UniProtKB/TrEMBL annotation:
Identification of the protein by name: Uncharacterized protein
SUPFAM superfamilies listed in its UniProt record: Hypothetical protein YjbJ (SSF69047)
Originating organism: Pseudopedobacter saltans (strain ATCC 51119 / DSM 12145 / JCM 21818 / CCUG 39354 / LMG 10337 / NBRC 100064 / NCIMB 13643)
Gene3D superfamilies associated with the record: YjbJ (1.10.1470.10)
Top-level division of the source organism's lineage: Bacteria
Length: 71
């Protein structure tokens, strides 16, 4: 099970933040279904050339201040 749970409503905002910070990510890279956080984390780790812990940290950071535009 993933170390993070993402609500679909929050994902809309979080994916926008990710696209701003990592402009090479495509809409296909940011497809997400609730309950499949592990798949998302693995895919983002590959696309960002970072490890799993970094991706989880980045996602959690974005969720903390979900209404803020910064990541």
């Amino acid at each position: 099970m993933a170390e993070i749970t993402i609500d679909i409503k929050d994902w809309e905002k979080l994916s926008t933040k990710l696209k701003r910070k990592y402009n090479h990510l495509t809409d296909e890279d940011l497809v997400f279904e609730p309950g499949k956080e592990d798949q998302l984390i693995g895919h983002l780790a590959t696309r960002l050339h970072r490890n799993r812990d970094y991706v989880i940290f980045t996602l959690k950071k974005g969720l903390i201040n979900i209404d803020n535009n910064r990541l």
